[in-house]
Amino acid sequence: MKLYRTNSSVLLEHEHQTHVLPETNLDILLARQDLHEHLIRTIASLPTVAEVPADAPLLPPIGTQEVWAAGVTYFRSRSARMEESKTAGGGNFYDRVYNAERPELFFKSTASRVVGHQGKVAIRSDAKWSVPEPELTLLCSSTGRITGYTIGNDMSSRDIEGENPLYLPQAKVYNRSCALGPCILVSEQPLKSSTSIEIEILREYTSVFRGATTLDNLKRDPQTLVDYLFRDNVFPSGCFLLTGTGIVPPDAFTLHPRDEIRISIEQIGTLTNVVG
Q: Does any domain span residue 243?
């Protein structure tokens, strides 16, 4: 089943029917560790509406939750970080992170900085080398249970992070640097390791970059990432955790204003954003 957030309501799509969740407090709903079971119990009493239009502008499926991210979880990401940091002498820093037991975790965004499907993402005004990072994103309950999945776009300023690893917050955390959507796939079962993640970037209606990977290239188990995030930390309303990227454009590529970014993950759908 899938949860969508619109300007007026939260919609639940299940078995080819779309239902309205009236007066939904997303913080309370998304914090539940029994989210799937709760929605199954509730669905019979919900009114139905027309299906969610495929091209509808949607709000990010988030309440006031924090968004966190894991880094260097794919070998391709490790290689890219080493390459961008070699002039600063920090290349082997990322190799050590990739091979360490403890994952890299960092704060990515508050809810107010997140955009949804068809929303405009941003590149930093002081960055010269910016890329999108397509990532499977976990919905975590207040108890640290993975209850759902969405698509995340972790907008990143590679030149700023490459100059010095300590600049990572500036390279990663700024207004409209994160997109989530188009929905939350609520599932009791983890996604299969064969699940594909794909990205395409269009410039003036022409494809300028395409890439794909699968979850079996993710080095770290998603629940392990969540367990580390919840160590000595509390998330009363739950949280979202981006799990890292396995797709990195070539070094000569940087985003331009008005580029269209399409990220697709099997079972979830396609998150589309324009650089603006």
A: yes
